[in-house]
Amino acid sequence: MKYTEDHEWLRVEGDVVVVGITEHASTQLGDVVFVELPEIGTMVSTGDEVAVIESVKAASDISAPLDGEVVEVNEAIVDEPGKVNEDPLGEAWFFKLKIDDMSALDGFLDEDAYAELVG
Q1: Average pLDDT in the chain
Q2: Do 72 and 19 touch, CB atoms closer than 8 A?
Q3: Region 2-12: what's the mean pLDDT?
Q4: What is d(CA 2, CA 56) in angstroms, rounded to the nearest whole number?
Q5: Cα–Cα distance measured from residue 2 to residue 119, given in angstroms and rounded to the nearest whole number
Q6: CA-CA-CA-CA dihedral for 80, 82, 87, 88, to nearest 10
Q7: Backbone angles phi, psi at 113, to 5 degrees
Q8: Per-residue pLDDT, 58
Q9: CA–CA gap between residue 85 and residue 9 (Å, rounded)
């Protein structure tokens, strides 16, 4: 997996990249009560606001880590937002992006660098 400095994780599955938030982000947010996901087929650019996550503490935007097309969203976390707290690195992924340039992943943090970032 790769990580962003915005506490998102990225996992490659074939020609798509699965995007979620890290356990650190989930803990910082507290109990997640609402998730809004993008529409399938949406074209996004790096930095675009793609999803919204609300907790008892705050609301946060999830930005697109890469340019691409949203090809799948995880409706399970819309129906049960608490899954984001229960399994942020597994079942609680947010969306999948089809990207043209897999080498774009090279610029993200690996697990050790992310661990150092969050201390």
Answers
A1: 95
A2: no
A3: 96
A4: 28
A5: 17
A6: 100
A7: -65, -35
A8: 87
A9: 15
Alpha carbon 42 to its chain's center: 15
Reported pTM? 0.94
Contacts of 46 (CB under 8 A, 6+ apart): 63, 64, 65, 66, 67
Q: Which residue has the tokens 């999948």?
A: 96
For residue range 55-86, list pLDDT tens digits in order.
998 899 999 999 999 999 999 999 999 999 99
Which of 79, 36, 41, 35 minimizes the C-alpha distance to 55? 35
d(CA 26, CA 33): 12
Q: Position 20: which residue type?
A: G
Main-chain phi, psi angles of 104, to 5 degrees: -60, -20
Tokens of 83: 């899954």
